[in-house]
Amino acid sequence: MGSYSSSSSSSIFLSLAFSLLIAFPIALSSEVTPPITNHRGRTLTNGQLNIGIVWYGPITNVQRKAILSFFRSLNTNDAPQPQVSSWWRVVESYGSGKRIPVKVVNQVSDPNYSLGKVLIKDFIKVLIPKATAGKSNTVAVIIATKGVTVQDMCAGSCAQHGLIENQVYVAVGDPEEECPECAWPFMKSPGKPGPTVRPPSGDVGADAMVKLLAGGLAGVVTNPFGDGFYSTARGDVTVEASTKCPDTFAAVNGEKATNFVLPAIWNPTTATCWTR
Question: What is the Cα–Cα distance from 227 to 237, expressed in whole angstroms?
Fold first, then answer.
């Protein structure tokens, strides 16, 4: 994010580049998806959303700062428009429309890869109670660093969210090495259209993980059980708030002059992809 830049000239460049992104939201796909035709799932849109984090592997300071700043920015209204909180209000609209305060209530570090460098769901299950401190009203967020493989991350799902023994979770990794397609548009990827953009923080991994985390968080709040939204009347093609708008992004402002590139999100009120 822009405030993490180490030199004034770099900061000016990033500021100008980010201004262009805000003026022209990133829409790099011509794919047209059908409207959502069926929604019968529950949501997590009532009351405060508590977050518990496991930092799995040696997370860098830039990455930790970016992710925690993103969480704080969800409920911050003192940034220039468009804001991260405006993006979050679209997520809130999937429920009653009431505000959903987000609070990080627990953080645990596991810098030595206690379960190895391949996180299958059985291992995510082990990490969940560490993230939540055993509290069922907390969303477990597993952040894995570069060199860790998160199950399914390279198999069409860049961010994983779901339910394990009635506990909701989100798991993301640093995709730079294994899944460059999940780090796009911050780095080139075969099959992805259009140019790349410079990550606002200057760190590809940090901004890629924020982007993936945002999509996973929107999914776990609006569709925690994985059966809420469909792209066909038969209910046989699933879709989510962020996956409904593939390869489209929103450049938004956060707390303390930070900047983020987040996935565009489907606005159920306007039936369009929100980008600003």
Answer: 10
